[in-house]
Amino acid sequence: MNRQSSFFGFLIAGAIALLVIIITGFYWLSAKNPVNIAAATSQPGATIFVSKFSPVTVSLLVNPDRLQVLERQGELSQLKTNLLAKSNINYQEDIQPWLGNEITLALTTLDIDRDPENGQQPGYLMALATTQPQKSREFLEILFSKRVLAGANLGTEEYQGVKLLYDNPPAKQDFLAGAAVGDRFVLFANDLKVLKDAINNVQAPDLNLNSSVQYQKATQQLPKGALGLAFLNLPTLAKSQGLELREATYDSEIISLILNSKGLVAETSFLSASETASPSPTPLLSQPVAALQYIPQSAGLAISGANLSNLGDTDLAKLWKQATATISGSGKAVNSQIAKPLSELQNRWGINLAEDIFSWVKGEYAIALLPGNEQKTDSWVFAVENTPEVTEGISRLDASASTKGLNINSLNLNNQKISAWTDLIATSKKLDDKDRLAYTVETKVQGVHTTLGNYEIFTSDLETMAEILSAKDNSLVKNRNFQDSIATIPQPNQGYVYLDWTTSKSLVERQLPILKLVELVGKPFFENLRSLTVSSYSNEAGLLKARIFFKLQP
Q1: What is the rounded radius of gyration, in angstroms, for the C-alpha atoms of the chain?
Q2: What's the half-sphere exposure (Cβ side, CA atoms, 13 Å) at 235?
Q3: Which of 8, 460, 499, 536 is deepest in the core (most CB within 10 A)?
Q4: DSSP strand E in 110-194: where?
């Protein structure tokens, strides 16, 4: 089965384009006239047709016409026209009169006939909700009649009391099967077997997605008013990409999309089938940590929270380990690329961050990267709440620095006592043609720290420390963009990851070169992206909940 399904290719491309329109169009419109679009239903109804083993199920829970207000230059209308161009179908005349408030698309199987000898042919199913059953049945007849006029052969069959229409024999490049099931849905599939399986899933409820315990748990986490959602069966999804799910703490995920007057919110929940090996809970915070007041507004990336000492055993760490191990087979390739800045810092200081620093951070903390420029390299800030463990940790760092030949010096900077780890380097230059040399000693700063209030502040260089000391009212917490972003995150939560895309784009691209390809595909989105904020906010066993807020240029 080597057929290609251009019909469903158009649908997938359309779904991606529709997401871009929603994201970019919404923020452009809300800057001029705030709008709030919410779904008419809380959960998709078409999941009764989808197998509980389906790798991916995606649903739009609002009529596409309600998204028309998000258009900037007629993108949605153009998208409808382009998707239907080869079918000779007119959206306004043939589909709009009966289309309801749900469109569901599912990858139902990785290989329809399960025969590896003839290659893999994925099965796709699309369900459209109908508000006028008679008109939607008429649409099916019109659609397949036009396909006959275009050269296809029409086949019909009664199956489980449902009339099936399909190409017979299957067209080489564009097979399509369709059926109107009951008074609620019109189904399309890229293979007759996929369509029959969908009907079987209704007749045998224990086969469909609604019967999945994990799906039931996942839908309980959905926020109100979600425009769309995606449910991922992680083991089969990994298999569809030629991967094996390793270090599997979580086996399913649900993602929802919400639009409100503040921007675009994506919410996700990862679920574990087993609660016996739950990761260590991460402290929940009722407000942003005070350590953020020592992070400059120029920070491109800021991470805040509490208690780094058990970082390796947290739910986020387990998810990270699962993702990297799955993608790379061992996790090393992915980790080395993404964690390159941390690796460079460890090599520079000759330390292990987890053992030599994170292990004694029991209180609140904030970490930031400040993008450099042609004259200045990237720098970093680390603010940590003072505890007895911090005092002991600094003493160990001083001892470690001494053993590596570094000097520990005290100096005043803007009337503030600073401790610095320095390296003294002797240099020489030629004085005259008699080969006489003049020697000087240069001091290279490897890191500095000081105490401010109840916090110990570490920076990579004196310039960054001076910026913190001289601009106390210019901290990240005073940044309106940051304030608006964290206001969308539920409290209590486990802290924030804040990325200022406008200032740190080049920094991120250096660490993840593949991102440039992603930017090319999603150009309208990345051109308008201003920042993104991520937070997790659940300590329930077997569940990791997170929210991502995308702030776009008005």
Answers
A1: 29
A2: 11
A3: 536
A4: 123-130, 154-159, 162-167, 177-181, 185-189
Q: How far apart are CA 57 and CA 94, in angstroms?
A: 26
Exposure b/e, 62-72, CB count within 10 A at least 16 = b: bbbeebeebbe
The tokens for 13 are 């491309």
What pLDDT, in 10s, does the model give residues 444-473? 888 899 999 999 999 989 999 999 998 767
- Residues 400, 321, 231: CA angle, nearest 5 degrees: 150
**Helix (H/G/I), strand (E/B), else coil: 250:** coil
Number of C-beta neighbours around residue 355 at 10 A: 9
Token pair in block for residue 71: 């258009």
Question: How many other CB atoms sit within 10 Å of the CB of residue 128?
Answer: 22
Residues in the chain: 554
Looking at the DSSP assignment, which residues form a beta bridge with residue 154? 167
**Given the structure tokens 């939607």, which residue do they identify?**
136
Alpha helices in 104-158 (DSSP H): 133-149
Q: What is the pLDDT of residues 95-150, one digit of tens each?
A: 889 999 998 999 999 888 777 777 778 899 999 999 999 999 999 998 888 888 87
Tell me the C-alpha distance between 361 and 390, whole Å.
7
Spell out the alpha helix ranges (H) of 292-379: 315-328, 332-338, 340-349, 353-356
Q: What single-letter DSSP state applies at residue 98?
A: T
